[in-house]
Every structure is written in structure tokens, then in C-alpha cells.
Amino acid sequence: MTDTIKTQFPLLQQKQNGKPLVYLDSGATTQRPQAVLDAVKHFYEQDNANPHRGAYELGERATAAYEGARAQVASFLNAQKEEVIFTRNATESLNLLAYSWGLHNLKAGDKVVVSILEHHSNLIPWQQVCHAVGAELIFLYTGQDGVIPDEEIEKKITKGVKLVACTHVSNVLGLVSPVEKIAARAHEVGAVMVLDCAQSAPHLKLDVQKLNVDFLAFSGHKLYAPLGIGVLWGRRELLEAMPPFLTGGDMIDSVREQDATWAPLPQKFEAGTQNAGGAVGLAAAIRWIQSIGYETIEKRENDVYRYLWDELAKMPHITLYGTPEGQHCGAVAFNVEGVHPHDVSTILDADAVCVRAGHHCAQPLLTHLGLRACCRASIAVYNTREDVDALANSLQKVRKWLGYGT
Ligand SMILES: Cc1ncc(COP(=O)(O)O)c(C=O)c1O
After folding, report:
1. Whole-prediction pTM value?
2. Is residue 154 part of a domain?
3. Does residue 102 share a domain with residue 47?
4. 125 with 265, same domain?
5. Boundary of a domain, candidates 268, 290, 312
6. For residue 292, what pLDDT is reported?
7. 91 lines ligand 1 (CB under 6 A)
8. CA pair distance 74, 288, nearest whole angstrom
9. Which ligand 1 atom lies nearest to the CA of residue 360?
10. How far is the CA of 215 from the centre of ligand 1 (A)?
11. Which structural domain range is residue 145 located in?
12. Are 122 and 185 in a shared domain?
């Protein structure tokens, strides 16, 4: 049966080695639906000029498209428009926070808490800032199942903690973090709470009024939007008190020979010419997601996720990491006994099955789990049970190719 969601993705219609492409690496980046490709094409064909610069009709249309995209993101997050900062990606959003908020609010002896699940993008910026100011970096550890126990939250998030930065969904294990508990505890001790939503935004409805966090970050390209556009959302009073991260054109109020003053939010954080085409694509991606609805997305993805876990769990010589219990989305991590993950991925590629192999930019987590590398199959709303069957069939061949009997 033709899947009406998958058919909206031109890239997924192609064949590789004569076989239908099976894309199971959406945790790295998603593919784009036709609606997003059309919106970006329309912008460059009809409305492209430098936003906020041209006092002519075309320039005003470019500004309207860019600021319209911001309004779309704000309503998607249930936030105010001024609280939405466009960046290149989640990594840049988190660096902005670390260097602007972190360098100016943390001092020697303060504590910053992250979890061992963090992607390097939500770890290294905090390491750097802690080194620079002499603050201490503390980890919330998981059990072998990848779950952060309640006691860990109570024990580590205590007086003296100034910031807690945590991933919403683990990019390796696909597990949803206990954000409600972590954020409540962070606020109880007076810490600022940062949520890395890079892996949750495509799967879960984000509402900044309900999440009880102070900042959140995500990348457009994991959310069916173009590469090179990301978002930082922050509480207005916190953003207003922060100095700019990057300086230059379009972020100033007035400039004299020796100093300058800053534009109000959000321009203060958007120095230089912005990726308006990317922002327009992100707005189109959000409209596309909303036309499907998170309820449908979650239902489809849960079905495929569970099927994926169960099919792989049945196979001999495969070890799965994490747990299928609890709230879960997006990814399943595994290894094939006796085979390096890179070899697994290369062999699957001969069947046009794309999975990621390596440390997944989460080396401390892999070390914590006693691993050097693993494979990850990650899903998006366009994936189907047939994709899982293709993966499972191809996985049957892996050990045989390498000379094992079974
Ligand atoms: C949990 C998490 N955070 C942050 C990032 C960084 O995203 P980007 O490379 O788009 O900046 C990723 C990317 O995989 C991720 O999975």
C-alpha cells in the first residue's frame, strides 16, 4: 500500500543499487517534504532580498517572510516572537547560551549539571565555560538501561547549582528524559534550566509554557526543514539581561567610534545577514507538521519504534541498548556480535538501508555504557514497518558476509 506521508518526500522515492532507499538515519537529519522544498524555492524565486535592509518592496517582502517565519516558530512553541532567536542549529544556540549567559553568570565554585546522555553539543560548551570561570561540571548518571534515577536528580541538583542543561531525548537511546522532575528540582534550588530539544522537536509537541524550562534549543534540519537554520528560545527577562554573543551588522542600536549599543530582542542576538530562506523553510516545515499533527506523528512513530525494537530483539547476535519501557521516541541503538558497527552500516548500505554507526557525538555516554561504538536506527514520521523489515532482512546477512556460520 502506498504510504501517503512517504510519497511527499521526493528523496525517499529513489532507488540505490536497484533497491528502494530505506532511510533510518533521521536522528542525524530528516528528509524534506515537497511543501518545504516548494516554500524555499518560492522564497528564492520571488521574495529574496536581505531582510531588515532594503527600503523597497522586495526588501520588505523578504523581511515579512523572515519575520513571518519567526511568528510561526513562536506560535509553534507557544512563546513570544521576541523570545525566538534564529541561529544556524542547536549547536550554535547552545554555544550562544554558554558564552552569553554562562560566561556572565557563572563564577568560580558554582556548579553546572548536565546528564551523561548529552550530545557533545550540549556538553562541550558547558565544559569550556566551566574551565573558563572555574565552575564545576557535575553529571546525572543513568543506569545501564539509560534511565536517570530520581535519586540522582535529588542528589546532584542541590544548592550551588546555577544551571542544569539536559537533553529532552537521547540521540543514542531515544529515551525521553524525566524533564518535569529535573526542571522542578533545578528551579527549587534556583538554577536556570536549559533543554536540548534537537531530538524531541520532530516527535513531541513542545510548549514552553508547559515545559517549565528557561531556554530551549533545536535544529530545523531534524524537523523536516533545511540545513543551516536553528532556534534558541529563552525567557524574555533572561535574554534581555544577556550580552550579545556575536556582534556586527543588524544587531546594534547605535555605533560610535569606540563603542556601541544593542538592538532590542531578538535582533541583539542575530548579527549579520540571516538565513531567511532557511527560516521560511522552517516555517513551512512547521505548517507541514501541524497539518499532520503530533498525535498522528506519535501514533505512527510509536508503532514503528515498537516493531523495530521487537524485530531486532528477536534476532540472535544482536544486542540492544537502553530499554523499550517508558516514553521513547526516535532511535534504537544496537550492535551485531563480532562485527564493527561501521562494517554493519556498510553491509546494510549494499541493500540501500541507511543507519548511523559510531559514537554518535555522545562519547561519555558510550563510555558509561561500556561501548566504543554502536549502530543506531532512527525513525521519522515517514518510516513504515516495511522499512524495519528491510533493515531486519539486511541484518540477517551481516555476519554471513563476514564468514560467520549464523
Ligand atoms: C541531542 C542533540 N543535541 C544537539 C545536536 C546538535 O545538532 P546540530 O548538529 O544540528 O547542531 C544533536 C545532533 O545530532 C543532537 O542529537
Report:
1. 0.98
2. yes
3. yes
4. yes
5. 290
6. 97
7. yes
8. 16
9. 14
10. 16
11. 37-290
12. yes
- The ranges of the chain with pLDDT < 50 are none
| 26 pocket-lining for ligand 1 (C-beta < 6 Å) | no
Q: What pLDDT score does 270 carry? A: 98
Domain count for the chain: 2
Is residue 142 lining ligand 1, measured as CB closer than 6 Å? no
**Catalytic choice (130, 166, 354, 361):** 361
> 360 φ, ψ to 5°?
60, 30
Distance CA 219, CA 231 (A): 6
Assess if residue 29 is contained within a domain. no
Give me ligand 1 centre to Cα 116, in Å.
15
Q: Best mutation site among 116, 219, 363 for ligand 1, i.e. most ligand atoms within 8 A of its Cβ?
A: 219
DSSP 8-state symbol, 144: T
Q: Supply the pLDDT for residue 200.
A: 98
CATH number where 130 lies: 3.40.640.10
The CATH number linked to 381 is 3.90.1150.10
Q: Can you spell out the DSSP letters for 242-269?
A: SPPSS-STTSEEEE-SS-EEEPPTTGGG
* Predicted pLDDT of residue 53: 85
Q: What is the pLDDT of residue 406?
A: 79
Please classify residue 3 by burial: count the beta carbons closer than 10 Å to its beta carbon, then call 0-12 exposed, 13-18 middle and 19+ buried. Answer: middle
Q: Is residue 115 in a domain?
A: yes
| Residues 348, 279 share a domain | no
Question: What local confidence, expressed as pLDDT, does residue 52 receive?
Answer: 93
User: Grid coordinates representing 263?
Assistant: 538592538
306 alpha carbon – ligand 1 mean position (Å): 24
Q: Is 328 in the pocket of ligand 1 (CB under 6 A)?
A: no
Residue 32 lies in a domain: no
Q: Does the annotation mark 354 as catalytic?
A: no
pLDDT tens track for 376-398: 999 999 999 999 999 999 999 99
